[in-house]
Amino acid sequence: MNEIILAPHKEESLLRFHPWVFSGAIRKIVLDKNYPFDEIAEGEIVLVRSSEGKVLGVGHWQIGSIAVRILEFGVSELPEHFWEDRIRAAFEVRCKLNLVRPQSSITSHPSPLTTQSFPLKGDEKGSINDTFRLIHGEGDFLPGLIVDIYDDTAVIQAHSVGMHKSRMLVADAVLKVVPFVKNVYYKSEGTLPFKAPIPEEEKRDQYLYGEPTSCVGTENGLRFGIDWLRGQKTGFFVDQRENRALLERYSEGKDVLNMFCYTGGFSVYALRGGAKRVDSVDCSEKAIELVRENVARNFPDCANHNAVVDDAFHFLENNKNQYDLIILDPPAFAKHRGAIKNALQGYKRLNAKAFQQIRPGGILFTFSCSQAIDKEMFRLAVFSAAAMSGRKVRILHQLHQPQDHPVNIYHPEGEYLKGLVLWVE
After folding, report:
1. What residues pair up with 256 in beta bridges, in sequence order?
2. Would residue 261 show up in a list of annotated catalytic residues for this protein?
3. Which helix (H) or strand (E) holds 136?
């Protein structure tokens, strides 16, 4: 196996189980004597050693500032059943957290964890949940890999060449571990490194196994159309599940505005929560079509929902004092650290507009999914917006990503979703 030798004292982060080796930490590369090339091909598994020769672990080699993503610490090669064991461990966590509540028609399938099925308690039968994240990169000790489950379909997304090369191992393991998954879709065309040496026919989005007849997932008893073929991310924003459920508790009798609504997750939860009126706004006509479909899927002939194609700032400017509850869940304003300053100005401006428009005694759910923006930066931007409005504001909740998007305690960079629930006098 090819070996990466670190410079002196550069092993300290790995001894603290941080899963990244930066290129500046490498002293030299030692090629295996039988290796047929002059340099390591991106995506191959390499052995990492300290400057003194200590085995630190094995991981995927990649081009860029992050040179190695560690898969297993303290070993010189991956264990025989590595992929299945790691994915099984992640699935077991989701089961124990009661996130895996599949349709009653498939509860007869045995769980890989025990010989038991997935029996639903009486109070859960109206709360089927077959939509969840199975693998969340570093948070599940598989850096560079995302796997989302939608009913009988798993959607795999690779963020590194190494995970791309391992895609069939991942797919096979998912099919073995999750008993109700029959189809595996690979959606990495937009997430793999742009210059990665991967043949076009390999990296294009495609089914690795099967092909579903239905593209509908159930989240806490609500049904959503999932467009993993053309939709954003893997087709649905699974990371807002718990925050949508919280919003439902506050929705009864309220006029609700869901800005940047995308597929309308918050809107559907608000309707189930008894909202008097829900307006869903997005600049994308395709998103608005999806919202209408999802509302109709759960509430046929719904008369108190309105879907609007419009720019967020334009809509807020022209709809003052109409809403008791506003949701601001914009796309990432900062994709990299160089965009932080402009992003913070964008968050401040957007929240200031919402503070100006919301009714007295209103509740604002506001979010940032920009990984480059930490929670203190985001909170300061919202604080500045509140001060600009001159209104009294209380923090009711500080929100984050849910249990199936865990943060590896040794990799705090994995925390990306920040949210505040605010009471505005």
Report:
1. 278, 325
2. no
3. strand 131-136
What is the C-alpha separation between 184 and 328, in angstroms, rounded? 32
Q: Which tokens is 263 given?
A: 């597929």
Closest residue by Cα to residue 309 from 260, 355, 273: 260
Domains and CATH numbers, the chain: 3-73 (2.30.130.10), 82-218 (3.30.750.80), 237-424 (3.40.50.150)
Amino acid at 389: S
Alpha-carbon gap, residue 124 to 221, rounded angstroms: 9
3-state secondary structure (DSSP) of residue 407: coil
With beta carbons less than 8 A apart as the criterion, state whether 158 and 192 touch.
yes
In tens, the pLDDT along 133-162 reads 999 999 999 999 999 999 999 999 999 999
- 383 CB contacts (<8 Å, ≥6 apart)? none
Q: Is 386 helix (H, G, I), strand (E, B) or coil?
A: helix
Residue with tokens 């949508």: 244
Q: How far apart are CA 118 and CA 102, in angstroms?
A: 7
pTM for this structure? 0.91
Residue carrying structure tokens 């929240």: 351
Q: How far apart are CA 209 and CA 183, in angstroms?
A: 5
Dist. CA 144–CA 14, nearest whole Å: 17
Report how far residue 18's alpha carbon sits from residue 16's, in angstroms, rounded to the nearest whole number.
6
SS3 12: helix
Token pair of 61, please? 């080699």
Q: Distance (Å, rounded) from C-alpha 139 to C-alpha 128?
A: 25
Model confidence pLDDT, tens digit, residues 350-399: 999 999 999 999 999 999 998 888 899 999 999 999 999 999 999 999 99
Buried b (16+ CB within 10 A) or exposed e, 193-215: beeeebeeeebeeeebbeebeeb
- Tell me the three state secondary structure of residue 67: strand
**Largest Cα span, the chain:** 73
- Give which of 59, 75, 72 is closest to 165, Cα–Cα: 59
C-alpha 50/C-alpha 58 separation (Å) is 12
The alpha carbon of residue 307 and the mean position of all alpha carbons in its chain are separated, in whole angstroms, by: 25
Q: Are 365 and 424 in contact (CB under 8 A)?
A: no
Q: Which residues pair with residue 365 across a beta bridge?
A: 327, 421
SS3 per residue for 313-345: HHHHHCCCCCCCEEEECCCCCCCCHHHHHHHHH
The average pLDDT across 150-177 equals 97
Distances (CA, A) of 413 to 18, 375, 416: 10, 12, 7
Catalytic residue among 215, 261, 283, 369: 369
